Amino acid sequence: MSNTIYPIGTPGEPWGPEHKQQWLEAQKVHRSYQDEVVTKIQALSAQFEIIEYGLLAYQQDYPLFALKHKSWQAGRPIALVTGGVHGYETSGIHGALAFAAELTPAHSQAFNILVVPCVSPWGYETINRWNPEAIDPNRSFYEGSPAPEAQLLLDFIAPFSSDVLVHIDLHETTDTDNSEFRPALAAREGTTNNNWNIPDGFYLVADTERPQPELQKAINAEVATVTHIAEADINNQLIGVPISGHGVIEYAGRKLGLCMGLTLAPYVTTTEVYPDSPRSTPENCVAAQVAAVVGALDFVRAL
Fold it and tell me: Is residue 11 classed as helix, strand or coil in its secondary structure?
């Protein structure tokens, strides 16, 4: 699919403000952050301190929430779980909430648990990868970020950052990556789009600076108990990137401004669930996200 058929902009020319406004006006609300996410956050108030760490003032106000477990003890390492950096990636958000709801005493006694379930609520409601300014928050995690979703989380995490031992960022790869989001990106940038092969199954994106192959292997082993792990394509790649292990590729997290570069935690990964697989269900995808977090924490606890 080429950007020549994307309905906004002129092929080969980057978008100007008028194109971004045209794109924004085409977006519609499909679901409710308040009803589907915030109510679940509030339901966890017995176990977690609910922290409103920021407010996104778009067409409406979107409060941003973090869950800090009430068994928090100074000096204990932090396990950070983030979801919904790309708001359209549904199981990342509900997986983070399900992990919080199902948190075992073993994990809450070994770690200070911090969960940020939905970094991009406007994206959740409109089923979008970008924010209303056509900015991808998951390429924007650096100081002075143009994406308030990223900057507000950077500011919130800063006091905790040096104590974060594990960070699991929950994502999905969907068929709309090829049908909408990659063509839109190429149109916005004035470049030519080349779609990638969507992997059928779960995979991980490790950080090239902190690859931790044994961590990635342990996570995939846990996830394999609930869903299938993606196989490499004929080029031994996933989404155009050479694999570094079964169901694992690597990105330069901090260089690319990814959420997994939010801290210098030694144990970090990004999950990628494939909800459009004929072998998956929404419940299965949420279970895979929970399994990924559990697999990571069990691995680090056992060290």
Answer: coil
94 phi and psi, to 5 degrees?
-75, -25
Amino acid code (one letter) for 258: L
Q: What distances in angstroms separate CA 299 from CA 87, 110, 144, 165, one per listed residue? A: 28, 12, 35, 12
Amino acid at 72: W
The Cα 274–Cα 260 span in angstroms is 19
- State the Cα–Cα distance between residues 64 and 142, nearest whole angstrom: 19
Chain centroid to CA 198: 17
- Which DSSP symbol is given to 233? -
Which tens digits make up the pLDDT trace of 11-57?
Answer: 999 999 999 999 999 999 999 999 999 999 999 999 999 999 999 99
Task: Give, in degrees to the nearest 5, the angle at Cα 298 between 295 and 303.
Answer: 125
- Residue 90 tokens read as 């549904």
Distance CA 149, CA 172 (A): 18
Identify each DSSP E strand in 90-201 by its residue range. 112-116, 164-172
Instruction: Say if residues 142 and 257 touch (Cβ distance below 8 Å).
Output: yes
CB contact set of 272 (below 8 Å; sequence gap of 6+): 171, 172, 173, 199, 202, 203, 204, 205, 230
Which residues does 191 contact at the CB level (< 8 Å), separation at least 6? 3
Q: How confident is the model at residue 196 (pLDDT cuts 50, 70, 90)?
A: confident
CA distances from 279 to 201, 222, 246 (A): 8, 17, 19
Is the full-model pTM beyond 0.85? yes
